[in-house]
Amino acid sequence: MDSKVEAGLFGPARYMPLLERGYTVFLVSHGGQPKFTVSEIVGDIHRSVRFIRAHAKDYGVDPDRLGMTGVSSGGFLALTIGTKGTPGDPNAKDAVDRASSRVQAVGCFCPSSDLVDYGKTGRSILEYEPVKFAWHVFGLEGKSRDEQVKALREMSPINFITKQMPPTLVVHGDADPLVPYEQSERFDAKLAANEVPHRLVTRKNAGHVWLDVAKDFAVVADWFDKYLLGTEDRKRNEPPY
């Protein structure tokens, strides 16, 4: 990866638009491949949101105004929490487990959203040449294709969009060779069909990441300002957190 792109994607500059507006940013380090599968990684992210919410007072944050962002696989995880965040278990002994893993806004970059129809109908992410090298992270070795498709369908955020999910922003390059742009087009269209506040920002001719990607975190900050700071009615028909 180009060093300038890497600095923009992973360096501290990407968070400055959020930090300058007074947001508290939590960087979650989840289990990674090849040791952990996608399902295990998703579990880490649910746990991280619950932990932050359970300890919100310690961090001086509002537990009912949590937003999530991420790039690439992090974008996939953000959409996963946006679509599949769950209430806590009121009977759990651990206070963290009693907290919800839902968030109130999502703003992410170039995320996979449909692992079954990946770039075209009937082609799963396991069959897409540019990313086949990472197939083992799904933990589906030795499974039949039908079993793989069933598992991938359960992992795909697009299948779990409801009217109750949080306002969702996606930023995506339309020349992305790793995560087809159509993933975000279809996800955004389904958000619209479910009347979820949504926005798809297209970066023309951009690949999977771009040189000034850090600047686009200002777009995420604008989105969070709108939906986390009370300038919009965030309650809609949302269940209590």
Give me the secondary-structure topology:
Elements: H1 3-10, H2 16-19, H3 38-54, H4 56-59, E1 67-71, H5 73-84, H6 95-98, E2 105-109, H7 145-155, E3 168-173, H8 182-193, E4 198-203, H9 217-228
Parallel strand pairs: 1-2, 2-3, 3-4
Task: Jot down its keywords.
single chain
Structural class: alpha/beta
Helix-residue proportion: 25-40%
Q: In angstroms, what is the radius of gyration? A: 17 Å
Work out the strand percent: 5-15%
How far apart are the first and last residues' alpha carbons, in Å? 40 Å
Shape: globular
Number of strands: 4
Cross-sheet strand order for the largest sheet: 1-2-3-4
Biggest sheet: strands, sense, closure?
A: 4 strands, parallel
Mean pLDDT: 89
Q: Unreliable runs, pLDDT <50, ≥5 residues?
A: 1-8, 232-241
Helical stretch count? 9
Q: What string, H for helix and E for strand, traces the elements in order?
A: HHHHEHHEHEHEH
